[in-house]
Amino acid sequence: MKYHHLGKTSLIVSELCFGTLTISPLQANLPAHEGKNILEYAFDQGINFFDTADLYGSYKFFKKIAISKKQKMVIASKSYAVDYDSMMKDIEIGLKAIQRDYFDIFKLHEQESLLTLKGHQGALDALIDAKKNGKIKAVGISTHSVSLVKSLLLRPEIEIIHPLFNYAGHGYLHGTVEEMEGYLHNLCLAGKGIYVMKPFGGGRLSFDFLKAFYYVKNYPYKHSIAVGMKTKEEVKVNVALMEGTFTDEMTPMLRLKEKKLFYKKELCAECYSCMDACSSKLIQVGPEGGIVIDHESCILCGYCLYRCPHLALRLL
Ligand code: SF4
Ligand code: SF4
What we know:
The chain has about 325 residues and is α/β, with parallel strands linked by helices. It has 2 domains: about 5-255, TIM Barrel; about 260-315, Alpha-Beta Plaits (2-Layer Sandwich), CATH 3.30.70.20. The protein has 12 helices and 14 strands. It has helices spanning about 30-45, 60-65, 65-70, 85-100, 115-120, 120-130, 145-150, 175-190, 210-220, 230-245, 275, 305; strands at about 5, 10-15, 15-20, 50, 75-80, 105-110, 135-145, 160-165, 195, 225-230, 260-265, 285, 290-295, 315. The strands form 4 sheets. An 8-stranded parallel β-barrel has the order 3-4-5-6-7-8-9-10, surrounded by 5 helices. A two-stranded antiparallel sheet has the order 1-2. Helix 9 (about 210-220) links the parallel strand 9 and strand 10. Helix 4 crosses helix 6. It starts with a strand and ends with a strand. It binds iron/sulfur cluster (2 copies). One iron/sulfur cluster (SF4) binds near residues 272, 274, 291, 308 and 313.
């Protein structure tokens, strides 16, 4: 496994980052001990970089990790908090939940546009103060927006960018694949830490996973790739892909059966909370009530599931 400095920060991260959404209650919903075992296994395979979020409900997996390992992990989290106090509160809640004194990275979660970022100035100020207080080591944002990525060149306080990145541009907002490549190039040369997410487009590019993987791996202007994994076998295969030791016999271990977002109209109470959760606006009111989902564009992030109080949405 190779390790890289994350931009100009002091953080040194493995080029494979473990995205914990897949093992969280939003997706595989692993029991705490199973999730913890997989994270420890990943660490033993050379992965030192782990991405979590307030929303995922995956802090519980970190709680019981052996201190000797947890202290060596680079742990990134993120929150949707908008104002100063809420962000400070979310950092404290997170630290208590993972039982550590600091996060290495804390981000504004899924910023849609420059306007969204402006609206989160209070939360951003909190991240800057949390860094001064030693609660976090670096300030970042996650985003699906190409135009927002472009604008970050002029924001020195934002040190880490966690953008969507895949060869097909699945889930991209406000821009093209070529534009995203160009803007990340500029940001990387300017010293930003870049770790990209969803190289397989949330499972949509699984039919050609080697093309999807090598597109991201061979793109030079990033420091790490966050990949969601939910079994030890998947960890093993992704490490092999990254280290160049992958063989065709390993393909079945990836369990590439494409997931799908299922909607049960009979359970739907038409509260429409799920529509707000989808920043790509892929959920609309149905012509006869309920909702309709644009399955073609859906990147299977699962965020809408979390907002449904009636379990009418499932990712299977
Ligand atoms: S519809 Fe749901 S799963 Fe699909 S992109 Fe939107 S929030 Fe994510
Ligand atoms: S959040 Fe759930 S109950 Fe509410 S509209 Fe969406 S699917 Fe229906």
